[in-house]
């Protein structure tokens, strides 16, 4: 379980194609501190399992399902990535409940820069629109954010200078893909209401 509070801006060192999967080698001195085989690390909002680590680098295998459902397949050596370790039980929940299970991808539509913040418009897949509400929570590339405006096929977010400086959202351009994870509570509520209505 994650909170969407990115710990560091890491880097893809290498990508090895394995047919129906890929093996990523990533650099992140903060998230690799004390890391061991089997640990989880979120990479751009995708929960990956540490296969091995040495120094400030770790490797993770990414299966076809993850490559198809997320934007990780577009990463190359040199790509910057948001990294976060799982939250410890009893720790502060600084963002919101994030599973690291990407629901789909959107893309940056446009950016509007202001003196102290930036408004970013992101396209939204049709099957996710019902989960996105104004002032609700959404995870974009692993970053916990508040929805400013929820449209029929898009949403907007407002980014403060800290988020722009410390995450990939500061360097993404129009057309770039982003991973989206909607609020899991909304999905459970929908499931419960649907199951109740069917009785």
Protein model, in words:
With 199 residues, the chain is mostly beta strands. It has two domains: 8-84, Elongation Factor Tu (Ef-tu), domain 3, CATH 2.40.30; 104-192, Elongation Factor Tu (Ef-tu), domain 3 (Beta Barrel), CATH 2.40.30. Helix content is 13%, strand content 41%. It contains three helices and twelve strands, in the order βββββαββββββαβα. It has helices at residues 64-69, 161-166, 184-197, and strands spanning 8-17, 21-27, 40-43, 46-54, 57-63, 80-84, 104-113, 118-123, 137-140, 143-150, 154-159, 177-182. The chain has a six-stranded antiparallel beta barrel. It is globular, with a radius of gyration of 17 Å. The mean pLDDT is 93.
How confident overall, as mean pLDDT?
93
Which fold name fills CATH's third level, the topology of the largest domain? Elongation Factor Tu (Ef-tu), domain 3
CATH architecture of the largest domain: Beta Barrel
Q: Give the distance, in angstroms, between the N- and C-terminal Cα atoms.
A: 32 Å
What characteristic shape results from the CA principal axes? Answer: globular
